[in-house]
Automatic annotation (TrEMBL):
PROSITE patterns found in the cross-reference section: TONB_DEPENDENT_REC_3 (PS52016)
InterPro entries per record: Beta-barrel_TonB, Beta-barrel_TonB_sf, Plug_dom, Plug_dom_sf, TonB-dep_rcpt-like, TonB_sidphr_rcpt
Domain TonB-dependent receptor-like beta-barrel: 272-726
Highest taxon of source: Bacteria
Keywords: Cell outer membrane, Membrane, Receptor, Signal, TonB box, Transmembrane, Transmembrane beta strand, Transport
Keyword Transmembrane helix belongs to the record: no
Matching SUPFAM superfamilies: Porins
One GO cellular component term: cell outer membrane
Name used for this protein in its record: Ferrichrome receptor FcuA
Key word Membrane present: yes
Protein encoded by which gene: fcuA3
Alphabetical list of CDD domains matching this protein: ligand_gated_channel
Amino acid sequence: MNLRALCLTTVLASGLLLGIDGRVAAVAATDASYPVPKKARSSSPGEVSPRNVAAKGADTNARDNTPAGAPGQHEDIVVTAARQNRMYVSSGGDLGALGKKKGLDVPFNIRSYNSSLILNQQSQTLGDVLLNDPTVRTTMGYGNYAQLFQIRGFTLYGDDVAIDGLYGVTPRQLVSPQLYDSVQVLNGASAFLNGAAPGGSAVGGNVNLIPKRAAATDITRITGDYTSSGQGGGAFDVSRRFGKDHAFGFRFNAAGMDGETAIKGERRDDVALGAAFDWHNDDTRIDMNMNYQKQQVFGGRSAIIVSSLATGMPAPKATSPSENWGQRWAYTDLSYLFGTLNIEHDFGSHITAYGKFGAQGGNEMGNYATTTLTNSRTGAGTVGAMADAYNVMNEATQAGIHAHVSTGPIKHEINAGGSAIWEESDAAYSMSLVSQAGNIYHPTQFTPSETYSGGTLDNPGRVAWNKLYSLFLSDTMMFWHDRIALTGGFRYQDILSDSFAYGTGKLSTHYDAAAFSPVIGLVIHPVKHAALYFNRIQGLSAGQTVGATYVNAGQVFAPYQSTQYEVGAKYDVGRFAAGVAFFQTAMPQGMTEAYGNTGQEIYTQDGRQRNRGMELTFNGEILRGLRFNGGLTLIDAKQMHTAGGAYDGKTVIGVPNYTINGNLEYDVPFVKGLTLVGRVISTGKQQFNSMNTTHLPAWSRFDLGARYTFLAAKKPLTARFEVDNIGNQRYWASVYQSDLVMGDPETFKFSISADL
């Protein structure tokens, strides 16, 4: 704790003592990246053009010419710095094949959460950021500490979170959000927009991360933070632009934390480093970012497997929120080196060509303790142990053109291109064949004996090799003074996947199949700031190669194709935006059925899950100084075709019937620089088993906090304090895919930032 206290003291002292001059860089609310011509991509708030970069700098210097100590100057600096810290959520983002778009102009539901929100909420994982989204819920993976995300009732694996629109580049299990300028959430299927996700998820939506790049004005920010019960850390963020017209940009970010969490006996360490470089002229834009992330968890609390419980068993009572049934020896060590390169060039005013490339090398080691509940009343169960080594080497690329042409009164935006992903996975494991007795209410410790192995942990061998190739083409036709936009297109996707036996490296299965994924979308602008829209789009994931235990062993199925229909309306005046969407998605599933009277079983893809619902979202300034972000989601997720009809019409396990989020920020008018913040997260009941005989009760959580911007030696400092889960509410957060996850305990967060 002495080291952490020293870090915080150093940061505070730097803000108090560094009186170099009174100049304050006016950092844009979105930390906007280098400027791009309007024709190349749709602008988003905070972006600037080459013509006004210098003008912005001139305006800043003009303000600085006011004599030090002049009346009102200090107050203006505080107000400006406070504005830069505002929660900002925009409608729009990167739509893959269609490029960067404003939300009002596309037939899809997409939102972007900016870096000031990430900083002010002191987010430590991607799941912390997505706590702000009323359409997303975060859960955990099987047997480890990986975060999974549920969008529209379907899973999004960490493997399928994108960076700069590229799959396969993001760290797989846990993501450090401090490296990103925005986190974009797209609701709904996206096989045409982004291609098939290599992990086979992203059916209900996807998440895309936009790395921080050099802002239009200089940034030098130092942050120190503390999280209960004993985590300390800090961050450093510097951004500079150089050369004529500020053509060259550089940005560097470093963040880290270390210490015990609010969960008893759990410790987490995190180091994240990111460097971004960019250059532009009137026709060409190039940017590159390189990142390193290391996350460690020691003695962590994992999810509980409840699939072995008898159907009549109720859901267990929630334990103390800080209780930890994990083993002290359990750990995970995740290291990733990854980056992207983007190039855009304008051929005249009508055609833009682009290319993207990304790569990731990851090394994962861990020893995991997994609890399987056998009696929900007493909390009794068994605890298994397994050590695992997993290495990945992935590459992804995408290239294409955006062309603007006119045929008479009709304007066309044509998008064409292709993408490719290559993934190689090396793995080995060692596990215990005998599980130990355990109890979630009275946990005990034991020493693992992992004697059964697959491969060598010190030298894991290849277990998977995946290749995904695709070509896409679309045309968006605009009529009636651009008030009507009709989009039609398709993507041809080829999925190749080989799996290999642990240890021997012998080919086990081979999969090679392809599919077309069409899209149709319609946007109508009845008035300037409103839109009505419709889309039909599909999700896509690899089918199955039938195993040896079935009568149709060796059969290779075509890719699973889910189909989504969505209608909605949007309203966006910049200061405030709202949207409503109604959707239905039907997804095929694998299932087994009796094969006549032979006593054998046949495997088919005739199963089906159907999710339908409504999403209502709001964000922006309601009244002067009062900002809101949040909304409501209603979901009806049904099993429509199950083996023997046993579960037909039953609700899918772990999909809540509603989710509600609300974030408020209020600038106190009589105290310059003071902002009060609050958040509510509410989740409806979730079915606990396939027969729907019991369910998890609905739960709500409240978070409160404040931030205060003030001057020290003519430099703006921002102090933040937040309490998550006020009152230490007990609740099971989710039971998605039969993995029961406990809600987080009451957690105190404090940080202070100095903009130098």
